[in-house]
Amino acid sequence: MRTPVSTYRLQIRSSFTLFDAAEKVPYLKDLGVDWVYLSPILTAEKGSDHGYDVTDPSAVDPDRGGPEGLLALSSAAREHGMGVLVDIVPNHVGVATPVQNPWWWSLLKEGRESPYAEAFDVDWDLGGGKVRLPMLGSDADLDKLEVKDGELRYYDHRFPLAEGTYSEGDSPQDVHSRQHYQLMDWRRADAELNYRRFFAVTTLAGIRVEEPSVFEKAHAEVGRWFTEGLVDGLRVDHPDGLADPAGYLRWLKDLSGGAYVLVEKILEPGEVLPQDFACEGTTGYDALADVDRVFVDPAGQHALDALDASLRGTSGPADYAEMIRGTKRMIADGILRSEVLRLARLVPESHGITVDQAADAIAEIIASFPVYRSYLPVGADVLKEACESAAAHRPDLDVAVGTLLPLLLDPANPIAVRFQQTSGMVMAKGVEDTAFYRYTRLGTLTEVGAEPTEFAVAPEEFHQRMQRRQQELPLSMTTLSTHDTKRSEDARARISVIAELPQEWAETLEALRGLAPIPDGPYENLLWQAIVGAWPASRERLQGYAEKAAREAGNSTTWTDPNEDFEAAVKAAVDAVFDDAQVARVVGDFVARIEAFSAANSVSAKLVQLTMPGVPDVYQGSEFWERSLTDPDNRRPVDFAARQAELAKLDDGELPDAGTEASKLLVTSRALRLRRDRPELFQGYTPLAATGPAAGHLLAFSRGTSAASSGAVTLATRLPAGLEAAGGWRDTAVELSAAMRDELTGTSHGPGPVSVSEVLGTYPVALLVPVDGEKA
């Protein structure tokens, strides 16, 4: 199996095709990248910038370059000695425009007789033999249907007609009644939908890749990539939505000839990948959380908790456990009610509980679930604990929960299979897409894959986690930014400084609230942190984020029922950053105050992520500052020419100033090149301890197998504001076992104890390599 040393994620779309990606391969090679990592490239909904709405899995998307583009990219990668990793989407397909998806079009036209009927997860009985499509503005809009060119039309929406269901003179409503689908009010989807979807997205229909024939049809093109040697590895999107993730991964390994495979899996604290997963690891959210937290000051927690309490008008900060129980229950009773009801209908009548009682109990169990899903029989204990918690929280459901438990524990029972597919949906929507916008004491902590109640990680704990990673998941991906992160890496690096200066942040926030008030204190904290993290940013970007964050939180406004007065206040607050000199000054002054500290956090986190155990990924463009907010902000085009020009300057010997984005490019390129060109320097993981008054501000480790072995050494500054306040490094020292050279500056140090202030005299970080022939 060929494995990557590092990857670089590119977002492939019509405005940046596979041909464009092929042209960037020489730059990526110069940067030090080992494999090119592509977003989904199968044919997707027209105009889709992300590609997760695949409409035809049988071909590479012509709008993204088609098979010729993939060949060009693969050939360029091969020419430069690089591999190719591709993101695939096995859980669902895009159905927003039925005519674009031949599988879905066939299903709607032919119903259960469609050759693709088995591909879709439809509860035909609930729909009376029809697929329910929540497409209408209201049920009264059936009057707006028309038959045109052999199709049923609703405004611009097109639907097929089954053979023999239309004669000249028939009313569109009568024709509609004869079809294998039923158009209905979009609001009815929450409780009445009868096909499985991706989370609450009705335009993404789940498919049943657990069926061999469906797997074969959905992966024929993917198989070709390996047969023809075009691709070297796969990233699997949302495996938790599958009926049998472990079985799917085994099939995928067989299909790919044993290729390198990663899964997009959120691991909660203490959770590990199931041993029967045929993959090399995750896409790195777990690593992201560890790196973030080692750069957060634990001393700031008390003050930020107090600020949170004052913003909420409560005696203490938000109770996160209770919050997510509530948000998950809200999702289970709301936008995912149809999925819960489908589970409830699987409970045999002989068990003596009604559908409503079963639904109530199922929703409560899911709300109590501590992880995204179980993988029965693995996770049976987690399921039992969730049932105990649900019954304790709702004693009135004790009998119903007890009735359900044996059904949910049986891996062969359809309700158990579907429950495992559903719990992750509720977790994602209730936690990532709701609670993360409500739990606002420090934005760094509410990132995908993170546990927000873990405020900070001490260096000692960080080292232990890295040693486990080296032992257990050495080929798992590490990352700091993705297309899905709520805030990109350098926005979080800025926000993390707030934990070091909580009182100054409280004063800044108070000033902003006075100048541009929004009637929701916790949301104000979230928004102003995001603005500071992303600054400078355009009005359009910040307005887009502010609206999305407010509606996702769902406290003061929602997507389905926007509060116009509240949203007007939000819009005015964002406008004030650009139009009110006082507001602009408050934001600008705070950003300036923390700029050097945030830059130190950025390059420190980057160097740690690129040199720690695992396969480091660089998200497109993040070799410069990456201060994006949530999608679509983090999927903006990248100016590769600027990066390429700056890299050429560095390679000509021009050392950038500390605190500039060119310094981040220096760190990124030198770390990537070293990992690729000197893999023998990254074989283990050994913590290095500093001595002296500022020892706690240094995160240091060697990638040698022991303290005496020669490996690359990473030195990174943590808590830079506190370091400055304490008078700097002073006589803090670190022991080097060999004479070493800094890859960033070319300066040599050691062997023996060396002054940290000397080694970190130019940048907040150093990447040291043994000097040949000068062993200690």
List keywords for this structure.
single chain; 776 residues; alpha/beta; 8-stranded parallel beta sheet; 6-stranded antiparallel beta sheet; 42% helix; Maltooligo_trehalose_synth_4; (1,4)-alpha-D-glucan 1-alpha-D-glucosylmutase activity; Trehalose_TreY
* Apparent shape: globular
Strand order across the largest sheet: 16-15-14-5-2-1-18-17
Poorly predicted segments: none
Largest sheet: 8 strands, parallel
Written description of the protein model:
With 776 residues, the protein is of the alpha/beta class. Helices cover 42% and strands 15% of the residues. It is built from 26 helices and 27 strands. The protein has an 8-stranded parallel beta sheet. A 6-stranded antiparallel beta sheet has the order 19-21-22-27-24-25, covered by helices on one side. Strands 6-13-12 form a 3-stranded antiparallel beta sheet, with no helix packed on it. A hairpin with a 2-residue loop joins strand 8 (145-148) and strand 9 (151-154). Helix 10 (320-333) crosses helix 15, helix 13 (380-393) runs antiparallel to helix 14 and helix 17 packs across helix 19. The longest helix has 31 residues, at 581-611. The two termini are 37 Å apart. 54% of the residues are buried. The mean pLDDT is 96. Its EC number is 5.4.99.15. It holds the Pfam family Alpha-amylase. This is (1->4)-alpha-D-glucan 1-alpha-D-glucosylmutase.
